[in-house]
């Protein structure tokens, strides 16, 4: 015991050393020097917890490495990099880095390439301050033991683990419970500002692995389901009409003409404005700002709410592990063909698996698109073309969910080959440039909407089109353009939630033109609305949500409940039903007779088949190359021909024809086995045709 006390006394200077990375983390994650100082004296206990966590990590790394200096540099570098990334993410999206961001690291890579000005003067000065302070303590004092023997390393490892677990479990002394320290998972900026970055991360991690709910069982779910009102209209009761239902999530679609003092050379979204005046329109309170499209999609398709999940989490990657009854499966049960369309990779946000779990019949990702780009992303007009093709090919009614990418982040000038909009106003050139780029992007979205409405209007087939933006665009760090243009006064604007999270929405149809509603809803309530509008049969969940939406059409973050007159207990049944679907035993599904997942689910428009292969010569004598022409069906534009398993340069002509150039080492006599293949950006083969063989002679 005495030896242990001696060991502890010898390690006490580590407490002084650990305060450096703690303060540096707070400066980088908050983006300024003043906030950490204010936080340090207002939240002393939280500061001590952050210190405790860093000390436990430092002791653990010392135990592993055996050298104090190296361990310090390793753990400090790791923590400071996380804090720096958190600060950058907070500036762009308004949400700091959370443990669940590690689940979607691949998805973030597309956005990272447009992030600039990471190593600013402030960041560099903080890093220099860290290096200088650390150097003085480590190399200019004799307080620290450089090398630790093996026996001491074992003791230090034990101490480190006990220290960390004491914070993680809040045991044996529940200090966090006593002083009301908890993770504000519904507001991650507040969570980090109050608890500090290290403690907030630990609390978030604990919340991430805690999904138990008191009072949840089969009877509780059954009682809620039985008490839900039955739908007012059943399929086929009043009309034989089964309209197409087309749901379009338009990337970062927002109306910048609402900015006071901003003058546009012409209206960037004239058709959208026309529909707002003539039909059903309104706003949707998005759970996201600047990114996180999948979460808005999740709410609309399933009726579940991100308000019951930690802010910053991604439902698709974290919480969907089983089938989920969605709009796709609800409409499929009534004879619809349900199709998902996305102009991005099939693996993005785990979409390929998610859409299968949601009951879609097919999914058309970018790998099956024509490479028609507008700026760095697929043009919205190409999404429209795929929507039209989908409804043309199916024999009956369609449910189509599509999202777009043309207006995706970034908004720096030069994003599009040509910009046809000019913006004037009393604000900075940077804000002008971003607004002009945004105007060009949403104009493409507006033209897409017009093309679809005019097509289905002319065709005469009963159709509903719901069109909205998933979130506001991220226009500069820390809402720079919104503040510069005086759209908001700052992060403390009294209408910040409404202004920065409300996105415009229109719902058009061509069979009930007198129907006009003013919608101001949460995304999770759009599905029940569309089911009633299309006069189809919903499920127990949409029945429940329809009734709830009449009382609370908008569900804000928890810290806005009081000001919006929402009683938290009134949402408990909603939360219980969602828990049953995502984490529970799915009691409410037990009486389903039709499987939610379509056993014939596929990528693309149908099986890739080859009917014939022709060569411009059957003899390679004297030839340096041969051209193959393949004929078949459903040949993807981004697919390619393989010869005996080897990829060959391919030119796609149309869905039925492609040519391939054979040269070099592949130009050999014998039997050539030809296939048509499509793969994604991760080199995963998504589809492959049958084989067709041709015999090549010569030489």
Automatic annotation (TrEMBL):
It is a multi-pass membrane protein. GO terms for cellular component: plasma membrane. It comes from the Bacteria. Pathway: Cell wall biogenesis; lipoteichoic acid biosynthesis. Residues 243-533 form the Sulfatase N-terminal domain. Gene3D superfamilies: Alkaline Phosphatase, subunit A. The chain crosses the membrane at residues 12-29, 49-65, 72-94, 114-138, 150-168. InterPro entries: Alkaline_phosphatase_core_sf, OpgB/LTA_synthase_biosynth, Sulfatase_N. It holds the Pfam family Sulfatase. Keywords: Cell membrane, Membrane, Transmembrane, Transmembrane helix. It is found in: Cell membrane. This is Sulfatase N-terminal domain-containing protein. The lineage of its organism: Bacteria, Bacillati, Bacillota, Bacilli, Bacillales.
